[in-house]
Write a structure and sequence with these properties.
The protein is α/β, with parallel strands linked by helices. It is built from 27 helices and 15 strands. The strands form three sheets. It has an eight-stranded mixed β-barrel, surrounded by seven helices. The longest helix has 29 residues, at about 70-100. The radius of gyration is 36 Å and the shape is elongated. It starts with 10 loop residues before the first helix and ends with a helix.
């Protein structure tokens, strides 16, 4: 047992010391992120350990203060007070860096917020001459002076400021970070209050080490920012370092490497062997590009953050990167990884980490096709395309949330019956910011981001609502054609969901004709299963845009398809004299007992000639453009009075 000179209880402080030492060693021995946030956390740990040790030592030395020179006594006590103030400021600084509060409040916020700590530090360091914080009496020894409470006021100030920063930046923070910062500062406040209530128990250090543990486990554990298998910085590390560079206005370029044969190699050689190869590739890149950082984004994809602008000729720099990567990959290893390479210059990257990440993902998806054209550079045109896609994605989300996606209808005319017998439902979308958006654009975006299922449901609900409310069946409309995308058909609940919607609006599925493309037929077994299930529910199925794909005709004839829509490119090619295949196609499908709809009918001559070719169902601008439900009903009224002659 140690015989302590003072009456203080050191149990909590002593228990915290080995924990602090272990955490500090672990943190310093690992490769941490080169960001200010990590530096603030390191400052916090050092200050807290210094505060704990100097608190115990000063308390003991103050009992026998006459045994030491006065400057030593002032020094050890000032060390405690200085570390106490630095610990409070470092925790605030860490929180401000974590939630990007400095950027939120302005460029001089860091300097302004350091003023209270600096003022108190000046008071502490000048106390041997001014006696503002503490002093020594020849008879009583150590005693607190009139501004002693300033050290607590400073800490309270920084805790309060932290809560303000968290509140202001709340939306931009992750849940894990919010909980970590809120709980750690609440714990520190509780520890300080307990120390004041139980003055002789050195409990502040114990609560401080709990704060450090929470921060370490929630945000600063180096393993959070490394891939588990190959130990390179991961996506989250890329976000944090990139955000740091952006906030400090440091130029940097990104080199994106997308593995083109990753899944195949995993299947052939196994995951372990491929990871070993990736580790080798990554190590070579780290050695070759020591001025930057290498990140592994999973699925064989890397990003190299080069902490300087490429400058000069971006296209030449991109080609040089491509050649350098190929040189690093050149060896006799049996596991031959193949990478496409794209360079994202700092001048193009944008001002936010989210924009940069979007460009990285865009590059990973499209780099192989872009490289095949001989291009290795992300250009401003690509950025504009991606920005447009992002705007459309947001507009689509608004439209789906507000249920403002519209459905227009284009009539399908029977030249035999001399009337409209059907209609094709076509999605339309308009946005306050973007205006009218092309269906090709927003449907492609919906397929990419997974909104296609939700979009398809809303479109089908609108179609069924219109069929029911407008009494289309009684008006002679036998079927309404609804387009299905291949991505939509991947939904295993497609058929039962659509049957439920039709039942809710009292619309028989036999009134619905689902149009699918040639690509959908050849694409995936799961798509074919949904097609058969829709057929079983009573719906009809037709092949859309025939002539634009490469379907196997033998397989097509075996599909449960009753109708084929000939694409307008085939029709126009015939009337422009470019090809004479149209009559042969019509005879072939008639011989297979399939009905035909020709698209792109624009003139009376085309209508009459197609009727002579026994193409009895026609669709095109000659009859009507796609129109709103109200205009479609007015069109039906006009057709009843004045049919096409």
């Amino acid at each position: 047992m140690i015989h302590w000179l003072s009456d203080y209880n050191y149990d909590f402080a002593l228990a915290s010391i080995p924990v602090q030492v272990i955490l500090l060693l672990v943190y310093c021995l690992r490769r941490n992120l080169p960001v200010r946030q990590s530096a603030s956390f390191l400052n916090l740990m050092i200050a807290n350990l210094t505060m704990t040790l100097s608190d115990i030592i000063s308390c003991e030395m103050n009992e026998v203060w006459t045994d030491f020179p006065l400057w030593v006594m002032y020094g050890i006590n000032m060390l405690y007070f200085v570390s106490f103030i630095v610990r409070g400021w470092a925790l605030f600084d860490y929180a401000a860096e974590s939630c990007h509060g400095y950027q939120k409040f302005g460029r001089y916020t860091r300097v302004v917020m350091a003023v209270p700590a600096v003022v108190v530090l000046v008071m502490i360091l000048s106390t041997p001459w001014t006696g503002m914080v503490f002093s020594f009496s020849p008879t009583e020894g150590y005693f607190n002076c009139y501004l002693y409470q300033a050290i607590y006021v400073s800490t309270y100030f920084y805790i309060a400021a932290t809560f303000v920063f968290i509140f202001v930046c709340f939306r931009g923070m992750s849940t894990r970070l919010r909980i970590g910062l809120l709980s750690s500062n609440a714990l520190l406040l509780g520890g300080i209050i307990l120390r004041k209530l139980f003055f002789h128990v050195l409990v502040t250090s114990f609560f401080s080490v709990l704060v450090i543990l929470i921060i370490f486990l929630s945000s600063e554990n180096p393993d959070l920012y490394r891939h588990r298998q190959i130990r390179f910085f991961n996506r989250e590390a890329f976000r944090r370092i990139g955000t740091e560079y952006l906030s400090r206005e440091m130029p940097f370029s990104c080199v994106i490497l997308a593995a083109q044969n990753y899944e195949m190699l995993k299947h052939i050689y196994g995951t372990t062997r491929v990871y070993e190869r990736l580790q080798t590739v990554g190590d070579r890149m780290i050695s070759a590009f020591s001025q930057g950082y290498v990140f592994y984004l999973r699925n064989g994809n890397f990003v190299i953050l080069d902490n300087c602008s490429v400058g000069g000729n971006d296209e030449k720099a991109a080609l040089q990167w491509k050649q350098e990567i190929e040189r690093l990959l050149a060896d006799n290893d049996i596991v031959k990884l193949s990478f496409s390479v794209m360079l994202l210059p700092s001048e193009v990257a944008g001002s936010g980490i989210n924009e940069i990440e979007n460009l990285v993902h865009y590059s990973l998806r499209n780099s192989d096709a872009i490289n095949q054209k001989g291009d290795y550079l992300i250009t401003k045109e690509m950025v504009q395309k991606l920005e447009r896609e992002t705007d459309i994605r947001l507009a689509l989300k608004r439209a789906l949330d507000n249920r403002t996606v519209q459905v227009y209808f284009q009539p399908i005319y029977s030249t035999v019956e001399n009337r409209v017998v059907g209609a094709e439902a076509l999605a339309r979308m308009s946005d306050e910011k973007l205006g009218n958006i092309s269906p090709d654009d927003f449907i492609r975006v919906a397929e990419k981001n997974g909104d296609i299922v939700r979009l398809g449901r809303q479109i089908f609900e609108n179609v069924c609502d219109f069929i029911h409310s407008a009494h289309l069946r009684e008006r002679g409309i036998r079927r309404v054609h609804v387009n299905l995308s291949p991505a939509q058909c991947m939904d295993t609940q497609l058929a039962p969901d659509f049957a439920e919607i039709a039942g809710r609006f009292h619309v028989p599925m036999s009134m619905i004709d689902f149009e699918i493309t040639e690509t959908a037929i050849d694409d995936h077994q799961a798509i074919l299963e949904q097609i058969y299930r829709l057929k079983e529910s009573g719906a009809e199925l037709s092949l859309d845009d025939f002539g634009t794909g490469t379907s196997n005709l033998t397989r097509l004839m075996k599909m449960p398809i009753n109708l084929v829509k000939l694409d307008l490119t085939v029709v126009h090619a015939y009337f422009n004299g470019e090809t004479a295949i149209l009559p042969d196609l019509i005879r072939m499908f008639h011989n297979a007992d399939m009905k035909i709809v020709v698209e792109g009918v624009e003139t009376e001559e085309m209508m009459r000639r197609l009727a002579e070719l026994s193409c009895n169902y026609q669709q095109g601008y000659y009859f009507s453009r796609p129109v709103s439900p109200t205009d479609f009903l007015e069109y039906l009224n006009r057709m009843e009075s004045h049919p096409v002659s």
